[in-house]
Amino acid sequence: MTPAHRIKTLTQFIVERQAQYPHAKGALTRLLNDIATAAKIVNREINAAGLVDILGYEGSDNIQGEAQKKLDVYANERFIEALKGGGECCAIASEENEKIISFQNEFSDLGKYVIAIDPLDGSSNIDANVSIGTVFSIYRRRSESGPGVLEDMLQPGVNLVAAGYVIYGSSTMLVYTTGKGVNGFTLDPSVGIFCLSHPDMRFPETANIYSINEGNYIYFPEGIKRYLKYCQEDDPATLRPFTSRYIGSMVADFHRNLIKGGIFMYPGTKKQPSGKLRLLYECNPVAFIAEQAGGKASDGIRRIMEIQPKTLHQRAPFFVGPKAMVEKVEVLLKTYSSEELHIK
Ligand code: AHG
Ligand code: MN
Ligand code: MN
Fold first, then answer.
1. Which domain holds residue 307?
2. Between β-strands 243-244 and 318-322, what pairing exists: parallel, antiparallel or unpaired?
3. 51 pLDDT band (50/70/90 cuts)?
4. Looking at residues 289-306, what average pLDDT do you find?
């Protein structure tokens, strides 16, 4: 077999998977393709970000005559445009928009899906040429007809139909799940096609990485402080001391930990009891992928995917990674922080 025959594109892969469901009409296939298309456009812009100064775009008009925009605003516009144009979804919730954006397709029936998205995750890293991402959740709408409404968005992670992320790193990858395992596709920039490169992704058996913003140490609950000490103890049998790695882009931190084995943590603190990350479009999609890869995602007490969201931008403490690591954090939180966190 020549190498060319071994290549499987994202589109081929999705179509083959959908063919296993005789009643599927291809809507999810088209939706994922719309997301991949927007990701490629955003990828192109990210790659050119370092040229902005020398080409004199900033503060002036770009070639299309548009004023230069911040990349997270640009990414938001591209994803909204692609999803609206595709006609398969009836509403979007985005980190960049206070309220949901609901629309209806002029040409056909309304889409039956809704999307929650963080169009650019880790945006503070853009200027430093460090990996960033996009992360998205796909739900089936709850309302019967008409433009999507808030209630369509406020669904727990257990209702997810699909979720994924794009990492714009040393190469660009799209990783997604529809609840039947996790698959990763690497963008071949020469032809602009995502190719299956990481089939059936699983957390490795051995794990020794922990990722947390340790600068917040003094604000952490006692259980987390104890876990960090545990990570730093000398015990070669359990691979300790663990290695500390923190990029500051959740998507990139999680992706590395999925490949190499590690836990990502963003705890709540006294000042911010719910932490920083957003349930709908940061925690839930990553939790779905983690569970499908054999791992676990928790807010320290509850399974992330079982939390019923009350508001669009609500936050949750977030612990995600191999099961044993997340369970260790849960035990220490229960033992040392049950009063401060009101754990029963
Ligand atoms: P965003 O760029 O979408 O606002 O997300 C940033 C998030 C997440 O990606 C990252 O893990 C976390 O913020 C980093 O926060 P700290 O700088 O507080 O560590
Ligand atoms: Mn983010
Ligand atoms: Mn963001």
1. 209-336
2. unpaired
3. confident
4. 98
| For residue 242, pLDDT beyond 70 | yes
In a domain, 203, yes or no: no
> For a pocket test of ligand 1, which of 224, 250, 254, 264 has the largest count of ligand atoms closer than 8 A to its C-beta?
250
Q: Quick one: angle between helices 284-292 and 250-260, nearest 10?
A: 10
Q: How far is CA 28 from CA 54, 118, 153, 282, in A?
A: 41, 19, 17, 21
Q: Nearest Cα to 27, choosing from 164, 171, 162, 201?
A: 162
Nearest-atom number in ligand 1 for the CA of 253 is 11
Domain boundary among the residues 171, 198, 225 is at 198
- Ligand 1 pocket member 299 (CB < 6 A): no
Rounded Cα–Cα distance for residues 233 and 243 (Å): 11
Does residue 60 register a pLDDT over 50? Answer: no
What does the mean pLDDT of the chain come to?
91
The number of folded domains in the chain is: 2
pLDDT in tens, 24-50: 778 899 999 999 999 999 999 998 877
